[in-house]
Amino acid sequence: MRASIAAESAGIPSVSVICDGFAGQARATARGLGYDSLPLAATIGHVDAQSYDVMRQNFIDSTIDQIVAGLTGDEEGAQSDNAEPAALDLVFTGSVDEVNDYFILRGWTDGNPVIPPTIDRVERLLADSGHDPWKTLGAAASSGRDLTIWSIAVNAVMAGCRPEHLPVLIALTEILADPAYGAEHSGNTTGADAVIVLDGPNSSGLGFVSGPGAMREGAHANTAVARWLRLYLRNAFGFTADEHDKATFGNPTRPVLCEDRGCLAEVGWPSIAEQLGHSSDVDVVTLARTNSGVIIGSVFGATPADIVPYLADGIVRVTSWELIHLHGLGHDQYRPMLVLSPLLARVFASAGWDLPRVRQALFEHARIEAVAFEQFIGLWSNLAAGRPQLRSLVEQGVLPRVFGESPDPHRLVPVVTHPDRLLVAVAGDPTRANAYALSNDGAHGWWTAKEIDHTPASDLVCIVDGPRGADAPGLLG
User: Fold this and answer.
1) Where are the domains positioned within the chain?
2) 446 to each of 11, 199, 325, 335, how far by Cα in Å?
3) Which end of the chain is more exposed for a tag (fewer CB within 10 A), N or C?
4) 36-63 pLDDT, tens per residue?
5) How many CA atoms does the CB half-sphere of 73 hold within 13 Å?
């Protein structure tokens, strides 16, 4: 589709050929790139699962006519817009049970009961924030809907969030509106889902917990804020099967991962937010889309040398087709995350290892055979043309030298380009020797961090000039 958009930008008519069933996601992607109603032509079935002869005949029987219609302006056009309620419209009245049944029918929930977002409840959540409810933080790239403070609050009420969580939700919305994150890709077929990482001096005061069960539902703040994200993606971004979510399987909502700030200070390591360039003195929320997670259980050993190989094996086990984000679908856009329990972080720290040394050791051990890497990016996928060989990519200057140090197809090569591409978080039960590895989906939800501003907004304050005293003007609410 990017080729079509490049053509359209140059004034050349185009039609994007898509697989059957991908129209909603294609429209969302085009809208996110600034081209709504881009002409589409669908194949019959999925081309990856068809023989050449079947695919060719299907193309002749169906797709060619759609291409001609798209180029001549005779296509039916984009999906018609359904009438949507305005922000203050009363959409339904009834009991709590009846409201939930209605919301489920309309696809406005995640399938679980919600707190009905009455105007009174939404206003109370916003009451002390100072924010103009109709202030817009951007537009949802996939749906074109405005991302207003009011819409954030409506979904916050539904998810059970509290007023003190609003600054976190606003920062998350700023990430979703950031083109660098790429929220319009949230519905791709592999079903990667967002993981939220939180760190900062106010995290525990806001109710976020980082201890036992750090990635499980239970802690209210961790659970409710993550649920808000899923609801907001559904209701503002069209993250549903009817619109642009084409996940084959998908993942359950992951609660917010709050880092163990005390342990990080003890071992002298930077948080995820600091690894991404932010200060430790401010609250920061980070968002990325991750595909799979692997538990690295019962890590045995009292020294870094004992435990590094097992931790690195976890990173390898969670990494397979995602290597197309290192080369193929993207370039150098693969950043897995390893979550260490505080106990394991202290094993490294007691041996004098800082985080760069840990990353270097993981980089040296998290390796696979070159032939396996080439299978993932060429033989077993159709996302890197020509079944590229790693040594050729090194010779072309596309990949670092470490990927082509010998002609042996069984040589070991890393799964990332550089040690700093490995992100390391610290959270979980401080008495357990476990870790968790998460693969990420590259630019389909790139690691993006925003600082959380807890300062009450002045949107609804009027500054009145006049003889009000020696120095300061008067403030009227």
Assistant:
1) 2-72, 88-191+216-253
2) 31, 18, 11, 9
3) C
4) 677 888 887 776 667 777 777 777 877 8
5) 1
